[in-house]
Design brief:
By secondary structure, the chain is of the alpha+beta class. It has 21 helices and 21 strands. A hairpin with a 2-residue loop joins strand 11 and strand 12. The structure holds zinc ion. Zinc ion binds next to loops.
Length: 613
Amino acid sequence: MADRQSFDDARQGFIEALGDQVVMAASGRPSWSLKGYEFLAREDAPDTVNPALWRHARVNMANGLFKVTERVYQLRGFDISNMTVIEGDSGLIVVDPLISTEVAKAAMELYFKHRPRKPVRSVIYSHSHADHWGGVRGVVDGEDVAAGRVRIIAPAGFMEEAVGENVIAGNAMSRRAQYQFGPLLPRGEKGQIDAGLGKTVSAGTITLIAPTQLIDKPVESHRIDGVDIVFELTPGAEAPSELIMYYPQFKVLNMTEIATQNMHNLLPMRGALVRDALAWSKYIAGALRRYGARSEVLIAQHNWPVWGSERVQAFLKKQRDTYKFVHDQTVRLMNHGYVGAEIAELVRMPPSLAQDWSTHGFYGHLKHNIKAIYQRYLGHYDGNPAQLEALPPVPAARKTIEYMGGAEAVLKRAREDYARGEYRWVAQVASQLVFADATHEAARALAADAYEQLGYQVESATARNALLQGAWELRNGMPKVPVTTTAAPDVIRALTLEMFFDYLGVRLDGDKARGRHIVLNWTFTDINERHLLTLENSALSHLADAESPAADATLSLTRATLDDIALQKTSFPAAMASGRIAVTGRAGAVMELLGMLDTFPPMFPLVEPRAPR
Ligand SMILES: [Zn+2]
């Protein structure tokens, strides 16, 4: 706690703060503001926040425009991510235009207040996560990109990953992300204080312009408007499509999101494919070897810089070894036969790493990361076949509570354990009470109490958010948030038709489809593509470049019509009625198939059983 280095690092090069500015979204609601975080001005942590997390949340408050070095600037605290502006000979190179256009514009305006208003000539997306590209139309105009006046550079595989990650499991991820980032929680000492990588996520207009140039070799060097940039691909670690950069003229290493001021997530709580900790460690080792001694400052697209070559190298070593240590020790114990939940209790970071704040899990969470490594290699099944036919949560909870002597007996003992501070167990057993009987108010209150105590103690901001959001919902029920379509028009338009038909497949209600056989030809008249969709055995199969002479019906439409349907501007029946979709053959077959597709609820319960169907 005596180490003040991070506070100095975060302030170095400070020019002007965002202050109490409220960035408004097109919807008329606030997109971004740091108002409500004033309580973090206090030096000492209150009893309701882990002291290390309190310190981290305070450092993350450094916000505004910062000079990194001659011709390199950063805008921090305008979103969960940073925007980096590099001054080329004739214009600007923007790295990562934040999540939404409103905050991206506001960040650029602060930059222009202090620096010449030169045009943005290049945008670089460091990776496929939306906090690194969603605000692009706030920074450049799509027509300028189309006309070749602005180029957009991204790592190989960018578009597929950027639009694909949030489609198939997107609805479940969006709901779970509310727990991870805590945007619905009140800000305060008993509420949301941080999100590890930054304060929280902006809420505004998400846009996407496809890259005009892909980096597809492991290492590529380019001179862009007089600025030399060495790009190095890092796929499969923090994101499926990602790169880091070295700017040799400025001796600046940009580790994007491969090395930030904390232990990152190997499996975000919103849910994702498990990331590769071993590859991650090797990418950092490579960056250390190639650029460490040649870097005077290390920046990233989250959090604050590290200054001085020796400190840059020490930082990279600790980042490298954090992922390597956790990976190797987890796999070692796994090979001894321990399961994830046991390994999570056994692995302790060595003091040489733990004494450095940058290795702590403020965004990631050590125990969760250990279970993720186990899952990556062995899956969620722990090898005990008792789990193969285990009862699901509600009947398991009912049986357990009944065996334990009923709800009142369990509640009595759980309260005694709560008084003794055994919050982990009380959270577990009180959750069983809630799953056995969701209407038991005293059980809900005790579970919420235990979640809160755990949330107040935990070092990880995302684990804190999850525990406090869970407690909030046990006390108040699910929040009533306005239902909006989360898919941005740019993202919908960028979906491949294969992704679209795959998504239709996961909406199919297998029971309704039982015994049905429907074959549909799809002809897209504007892009000259044909697709074949076959329902058989309760599964919807898709083939590109195919059609069947025996199809029940053939649909002719434009891609734009399909996009309008996906954006809920029209519907299949309305488009058929208006003639935007022409159907030959048996039109009823189309309606029958549509009738078998589910619509997903944006909100669903996580800390209590779902209402009976
Ligand atoms: Zn990010």
